[in-house]
Amino acid sequence: MMNKEKELKNRRRPQVIEAHEFLEITHDFTDPKDAIREAISNAIDWGATEINVIITEDRTRPDEELV
Description:
Blueprint: H1 3-10, H2 18-26, H3 32-45
Organism: marine sediment metagenome
Protein name: Histidine kinase/HSP90-like ATPase domain-containing protein
């Protein structure tokens, strides 16, 4: 293995809690649809081949608008 490849393989990767990161990013948007649109756009920009979006309804808050 080449030195550059070995260096990249041994490099530490930061630990990211996706849900927390997503919630932090959503505070930058006033409309939840814009946050979802941005997340999908970023995934495409980074070459995602599959994107899963799961939206659930909070039945304890029936008067709230669904995204």
